Amino acid sequence: MPTFDHAFDWARRHVESGALPTAVVGIATADGVVALEAFGEASVDDHYPLFSITKPIVGLAALALVEEGRLTPTTPLTAALPAFGANRDDVVQLRHLVSHTSGITEPAMDLPGLRTRLLAADRDFQAGTVSRYSTLAFEGVAALIEHASGAAWQERVTEIARRADAPGLTFDPEASRHDPVDAAEQGIDWDRMKRIGHPGAGLFARASDLLALGSALLRDDGAIVSPLTAQAMRRPLTAGLPKLDPYPAERGQDWGFTWNLRHAAPGLLASDTYGHGGWAGTEFWITPSLGRCFVLLTNRANRPGVDADELHNAVAAAR
């Protein structure tokens, strides 16, 4: 088994310098967790707000319904919300919502009333023609999950956590003591946002929960989704499309079914890494060719001097 000393040194260095307030780093294979360590005033059992790492977990709940024959990637959002898009002449489908190509205009992340905001949203561009990152679009994914399953979308996310043996995945804001230290400075009302339960940014988890999910996906044994579905979810949905900030083309990535596919990222040694990051610095990435996944939990959005690609490479190249 490789040693991951360089990865842990990376986290220790950034916490000791003050660049990161706290950190938990963990690495897993298909067989489970192989290394896990906390830095600063943190424990390996601590929950952290995941922010946008929520998106692929909600996406897995939607994919489970595709497997059940209750949704397809082309199911229109109007199947769940007939009033959506009254001012649009295009059709927004599930595949657009999960790949940031829906053209739904984006409000501030910390505003409540998500369903109302989704229905009132203007069009930024025609669905499927451009990629611009959208968190509100995941309220549409949640609506389709509820329409297809007849249950609250949170229940279907809980089912994904059960399949992954990740019982710490939760929408309970009281689970974490690691508030983002610079939320107000970055224009986020954290006290308000953490109570929204946002389907694009509202989950909390321990490192072990994400590593359990990553291990299950590396095993590709059908525990989460079938191998066919796992292959399909990593198929690029934005290839050849214009890509707007904050994910312009030069970042070398595409969007699959909610997953960030970093196949041409100039800072990475590996070319088959997929996963997601979160607004307050969290990272969750899987590299199938190496049989490894890693998690970084931390709680600072603005991280000058912190290049997470260094951690990616330290994990990938460990031997």
Can I get a quick summary?
This protein has helices spanning 5-17, 54-67, 94-98, 114-120, 137-149, 153-164, 190-193, 207-219, 227-233, 308-316; strands at residues 23-29, 32-39, 48-49, 204-205, 254-255, 260-261, 274-277, 283-287, 292-297. It is of the alpha+beta class. The strands form two sheets. Strands 2-1-9-8-7-6-5 form a seven-stranded antiparallel beta sheet, with helices on both faces. A two-stranded antiparallel sheet has the order 3-4.
What does this structure look like?
It contains ten helices and nine strands. The chain has 319 residues and is α+β, with helices and mostly antiparallel strands. The strands form two sheets. A seven-stranded antiparallel sheet has the order 2-1-9-8-7-6-5, sandwiched between helices. Helix 1 runs antiparallel to helix 10. It is globular and about 55 Å long. The model has no long low-confidence stretch (mean pLDDT 97). The N and C termini lie close together (8 Å). It has helices at 5-17, 54-67, 94-98, 114-120, 137-149, 153-164, 190-193, 207-219, 227-233, 308-316, and strands spanning 23-29, 32-39, 48-49, 204-205, 254-255, 260-261, 274-277, 283-287, 292-297. 30% of the residues lie in helices and 12% in strands. The protein has a single domain (5-316), classed as Beta-lactamase (3-Layer(aba) Sandwich).
